[in-house]
Amino acid sequence: MVPNVPESTPEPVVSPTTVSRVYRAATSLFLTRRLPDALSALQPIIADSVSPRVRCSRTLRIKVWSLYFAILDATTKMGPEEGKKVWGAQEWRRIVSRVRSGAIWNEAIQTYGEEGRLDGDIVNTLYALPRETFCQYYCIATSTNSPYLQESCCC
After folding, report:
1. For residues 21 and 117, which has the higher predicted lDDT (pLDDT)?
2. Domain segments of the chain: what residues?
3. What's the pTM value of the predicted model, to 2 decimals?
4. How far is CA 23 from CA 19, 92, 106, 110, 120, in A?
5. 8 Å CB contact between 155 and 96
6. Of 73, 77, 85, 119, which one's alpha carbon is 20 to 30 angstroms from that of 35?
7. Is the pLDDT of residue 41 over 80?
8. What is the SS3 assignment for the chain?
């Protein structure tokens, strides 16, 4: 143990203004097709957008998560050549694998704490992704019985 260092240092609280500022910057990067930069800017605030300590508005939370899913979706839609060029071979494969395996559904649930706490609009955003992508990872990842989604996805 290092002397004079508290064992548990409190995490710095990010303000909703900071989340909003980072969201706007990441949006600009996304719109200019600088996906790796957009994702690296957005990732640190994803969990913060849900944290009760930060108190982000529901609208801002939905915007942050929707942009996150849009970046991941745009990445999965890239062909192997473009994906490897933009992201690097290993990172592109890792992202595509996470999306296709259902890891982003699990990530959303883990960040929110439980499936029932997920904002409905975030579930709708996931559902609005290309049908085969969403259905594939929803059916793999979910452990709940959602008859509406199961019917429409053919799980």
Report:
1. 21
2. 16-153
3. 0.75
4. 6, 22, 22, 21, 20
5. no
6. 119
7. yes
8. CCCCCCCCCCCCCCCHHHHHHHHHHHHHHHHCCCHHHHHHHHHHHHHHHHCCCCCCCHHHHHHHHHHHHHHHHHHHHCCHHHHHHHHCHHHHHHHHHHHHHCHHHHHHHHHHCCHHHCCHHHHHHHHHCCHHHHHHHHHHHCCCCCHHHHHHHCC
pLDDT over 70 (residue 150)? no
What tokens appear for 62 in the block?
A: 């939905």
And the tokens for 38?
Answer: 């957009």
Query: 127 pLDDT exceeds 60?
Result: yes
C-alpha to C-alpha distances, 75 to 64, 68, 108, 118, nearest whole angstrom: 17, 11, 18, 24
